[in-house]
Amino acid sequence: MLERLGSVLGCLGFMPSEMGRRADRWSWGVAVGVHVMGVVLAVVAIFLLRVAFWTQRSSADYGEIFFKLMQWVWDAMHNGDFWQTTIAIAVAVESGTILLATTLCAWGARDESIGRSSWAAIKRVWLLAPHGALVIAMVGAGWVFLNEDYEMTVLFIGVMWCMVTVLRCLGAARSDRPVERRPMCEFCGYDLTGFTSDESVATGHCPECDRAIAESLGDDARAGTAWQVKRSLRSWWTCAWESAFHSEKFGRTIRLYESQQDHRGFFLMHLLWVAVINFLGLQFIVFATNERLTRWLWLDVLEFWQLSVMLSLIGMVVLTVGTAGMAALSVGKPIKRNLLPVAMRATSYMTVWALGMLVAIWLLIVITVWGQRAGWVRVIADALDIDRALVVMVPWIAGAVLLLGGYNLAIKRMVMAARFANR
Predict the structure, then answer these.
(1) Is the separation of the CB atoms in 159 and 314 below 8 Å?
(2) How do the domains of the chain map onto residue ranges?
């Protein structure tokens, strides 16, 4: 009984880590069944919310509107366009689900085939379909029954809950054993299976590149980053600096196949700063426009702050995990190795750089707003005889190219340095 209750709560998003651990024991038939049930529950929730919405805005009672909508659905089912639209929506939902799972599969990937990591992520996302239905019902009920001032707050809570649930589920420990690989030279990838004795490790050299075997298999090889050794303010700064500006050295230091928590903790601790950065950015915009912070303006700022934090957090997660996937594919495909665990750690330790990009975006927004109000944009456009939009867009494009280029270059260097890692 308790086992079934835990499974139900896990699928609803209340015990995502436990559900992620149980997912390996469940068959694909169960995953598909739960996914279909979740989609049906979402459709029912949307239908009931629509009934409640029209009940709130008309003199008719709940039952009358319910049966009117049921009659509309029944009539629509006898129309060919209804089924075409239904199939199109179903294909879009399934495509979005699979795209979400494959994009986020790097979060819980291990040293295994990329296909195995992707299928494990898809299975877990399917099992979370009832949670999606619950979030839809919660957000919809908030929009229908609460004051419109709380609509963005309800949406913010629902999206954040959904994001945390998916990440915790995908990051849960896996029950199956990871792939056991042969020892390799970390510099050229040469198979060192016959050179694992203590004497060979201590004095031997790689037959391919002549690097000392101790640098690949010795006790001091991959001693771990400062954050992996000891978590402190100094180790945080060391990792933030070395990952960005000494990325190749950092890639040869980081331990890859031990705890899954060090890099995740480093990444997640920076997400709190997203809220602070967005709040300060909005305050600078209010100051730049010389607006008096009245109660209504404060409510607008609070609403926009929630929207900006929500979009920034989603963007941060997608940037981190998506970049890890692209770096892993580009570097790992030639050597036929799944480098998702390697790239995920690289992007996690580059979170400070990602926060720097967010700060740069807000600075550009504030400068643009201030320049528009002070007339600088018009003066520059007239002096250069160009459109005002170009004066605004050129700094944005140049900044994006420089920041994203440096971000991707540092990550690729780390992944290249760790592509043949043994530990």
Answers:
(1) yes
(2) 2-170, 187-221, 261-417
